[in-house]
Amino acid sequence: MERTRKWWQSLGQWVVAAVAVGLLLVWLGLSNDPESHAALALLLYVPYPVYLVPAVLALIWSLSLGWRWRVLAMGSVLFVLTVLMRPALGSPDDGYRRVRLMTYNIKAYLAVHRPTGVADLAMEVLQHDPDVVVLQDAGQLLDVRYTPPTSIKTILGQREVYAFGQYIVASRFPMKGCLPGWIPYNGQNHSYVHCVISVNGTDFDLVTVHFVTPRDGLNAARSGGVKGLGAWRDNMNKRLTQSGVLAEHLRLMKRPRVVAGDLNAPENSSVVQDLLDTGLRDAFASAGLGYGYTHGHSLWPGISFLRIDHILVSEEIGVSDAFVGGKVASQHRPVIADLLLVRQP
């Protein structure tokens, strides 16, 4: 009996230590340009329960061990909740000339075929009442074959509207110069939309974009193993190409800038970093509180676990608040930010 107990304790110590070391290796992989290696880049899209569950189980096991092992196991849980899951502890800026902006991938091609799909989208937008709303995957929303004009009016209200392809930009403030831009990859055209918004004498550049989805690449890696890494690498490189091209376009803009959309990448991805390196910062990281996950709730077990929808702003623009919306209407939660076009130090 004593021998069995010692063996069980020894095994528990190995488990607690292995979990701690494993989590440390994951962090090192995520901290050192993970997209330089396709396999490491997959870590960016791993659901956080994959890390949290073994850490919690190790903590439970550690209760039968010495205090040092309990401390190590508790440290592993805290490491996941903080370092790996990356909560925001933002601080609001001071300033004035407030604009509430909302970005939302509405998956209109799915919503228009659900009995309450469009009504759910309308409720989400009405709840937050943004001054400016940018929508992605929204092409079917303006098609009267699918969406009654009254429903369109409910969602967009009295805002001025510009639409191109999958994008809709709707603003209570005057818009000018709205045009598509191009971020091609592998010889294929892919677009974004650029508008200038005028708010009481202050103009800013607004860009909404939707980068290539990682879905096909992730599915290939999951089902094909090592063989699927090639497809995943190609998929990853498409987003990196798009972000690099868009970054060059952003550097040419001289006004204060806002980039809002479904970037299909978390903030620590090189995809987002390419854009941040142009002088932008993430609104949620700057003024939000908590994890702000926007995607994953349409998958089992129904929880959001990735923050891939973003609002990025240039340094001239303040952020007084940033948060995410509900999960009912779309596979993506919207991101809402209260921007201050005149930021005070």
Write up this protein.
The protein is α+β, with helices and mostly antiparallel strands and 345 residues long. The chain folds into 2 domains: 2-84; 91-344, 4-Layer Sandwich (Deoxyribonuclease I, Chain A), CATH 3.60.10.10. It is built from 11 helices and 14 strands. The protein has helices spanning 2-31, 38-41, 49-62, 67-84, 108-111, 117-128, 149-156, 215-224, 229-251, 270-276, 283-287, and strands at residues 88-89, 94-105, 132-136, 160-164, 167-171, 175-182, 191-199, 202-210, 257-262, 280-282, 289-290, 309-314, 318-324, 335-344. The strands form 3 sheets. A 6-stranded mixed sheet has the order 4-5-3-2-14-13. Strands 6-7-8-9-12-10 form a 6-stranded mixed sheet. A two-stranded antiparallel sheet has the order 1-11. A hairpin with an 8-residue loop joins strand 6 (175-182) and strand 7 (191-199). Helix 1 (2-31) runs parallel beside helix 4 (67-84), helix 3 runs antiparallel to helix 4 (67-84) and helix 8 (215-224) runs antiparallel to helix 9. The longest helix is centred in the first third of the chain and has 30 residues, at 2-31. The radius of gyration is 22 Å and the shape is elongated. The termini are far apart. The mean pLDDT is 96.
